[in-house]
Amino acid sequence: MHHDFSAPRQLTAAVSGATVKFADFDIVRGATLVESTSWKNPPLMCVCHETVTIANANGTTSHATATTVVFPLQLFALAIAALIMLILVTWLVRRRFHSRVATEARRLNDEGE
Over 90: is that where the pLDDT of 55 sits? Predict the structure, then answer.
């Protein structure tokens, strides 16, 4: 006895309103199998809840659920780096401007004496 998870009974996961398919596989009675799949177009950010439902031979169903956090670390790091660069450039421009104003004020003060 075995369970066949190939089309049209392919194993799928319901993930935040989307359906993610697993590759076709068979499993024999008493065996344990760890199967994985990849989500082709996940959202940019989410706390996603996945549910896989399997109908057993006796008519009952089994559910497995998981939670996955999708967070764009590379995009976040790029945004932080851009923010730091903007702050640094603003600070340098203001420092240069105030330096020029102070120099001009000293020059005008020296001419007035």
Answer: no
